[in-house]
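protien #1 (seq + structre)
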Amino acid sequence: MSNTSRARLVAAAATTVLAALSLTACNDGTGAQDEGRAASTSPSSAASSPAADSPSPAPSAGTDQSSSTGSKGSAGSSGSGSAGGAMTAASPTRVSKAPGSAARPVTCEGSTTRTVAAPLTRPVNHMLLTVTNTGSKTCYLYGYPAVRFGEAQAVPPVIEASQPQAVVTLAPGESGYASVNLSATDGSAGNGYTATSLTVYFQGRSGTGSTGTAAHPPLPAKGVHVDDSLKVTYWQQSMDDAVSW
């Protein structure tokens, strides 16, 4: 082969190599640009749906969720809404208390009263019994005092005409009264004696027998004279009514 032919072959080969190199460089640049554009312009699945990956914040206590979604909103109005209202109502509710057994009147008796026995100068041969309610509840003085002087076995009778129209009612601190006719003023009654002690029994609502604790009011040191004419009045709301018998 001549030198001229070799030169032409070498030149042709060189041209071919240069063309191949240019094509390769062009392809590489375009590919890099395409990949970069794809990475920057094509959002990932995580970026395109943030709600799927990040949870919604939980509602605070007492918040009505009726505005969230359709059917859940209805349920929230009747269920969650009412529960929320109950939770936000922090202030206590005043409840009216119905009167219970603590407010009901009881029967007056020795443990919740103070009894005083005082002889009177007028009417003569009379003694006034004063019962004061020392308890915390209103009490009823039923019937009349069943009194026993000294060791007497019988309870003196009551003056029936002295019965009041209503049961004597004592609020705490109030007093009720009864008088005791100790002896006949003319000395006509028999079996007289001097008594130095007194026991007062309280009647219940039935009017038969005694109830609760008896009272033991002191008598004057010299005692009191009693005889067969001994009798008592019913309990009275006022002192004047008691001593009028």
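ok now protien #2
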Amino acid sequence: MGNETKNLILILLVLALFTGMAVEISEGSTVVGVVLFLVSVFLLTRIDFKNLGDSGLLKKSKTCFVVGAFIVAADLAYNFKNGGELGTLDVMTVFFGASLVGTQLQNPQINRVSRFGAYISSVFVILYLIFYTMFAFFNIDFLHKFDHYFILLPTVGVLNLAGIPLEVVATETVRISGVEEMTLVIGGPCSGLYSMFLLIGIVFGYSRIENLNKNKTLMMLGFCVLVAYISNLFRVVVLYFTAYMYGQEAMMLVHTHLGWIIFAVVAAFIMYLIELKS
């Protein structure tokens, strides 16, 4: 197996596991999410990146080591003190801190995974803070409007056209009268933004480490956002259909696992295009 082919397979596996981790921790099993995270980190160490030169904040620096260790300790201590479980943001924050620490170590495999991990996690955290924290602080009602106009209404419209009656009863809520009566709330992780942030981080990190040109990177980022959005619409349509035909229990099973599997396939296709063009 050639080195480039091996890298591509590993990157696709990492994409699948990372997206699975994000969804499982936020919607399914935290234990499964942590296992997927640990396996994905191990696979990252097996990727043979071409370019590992120091750049920007990733240069050897005691400051990076101290800041990274502080971030990990502060996040874990905060959650332990408040008795809360680690959410997706916590996992990515800890991963960012650990990645900063890892960039200062001499082991080449740890250094490699840490550089890629720092890009992935920092992009995710920044986008999360913008869309979920900063928007809320300034009372920018982006998320509810996005869920309503760009997720709920298009998916309800598709199923209405197919003859499946769904009733919009609130901004993010739909009533389904199928094998059983139920209401579904489409919001939070169901918006698909978590997976989109993660994919943007992976594409950005890969482009930086592999020195892809700016135009190709921007093109791939725009393309991945579009495809991620469309794939999430498909996922929500499947959830509605499953709830209508088979009930809530079947829908919840699909809800937990289908999203990251679909997104992993989409991510794999995008990374294949990057590797093909690079």
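Residues 3-277 form one domain.
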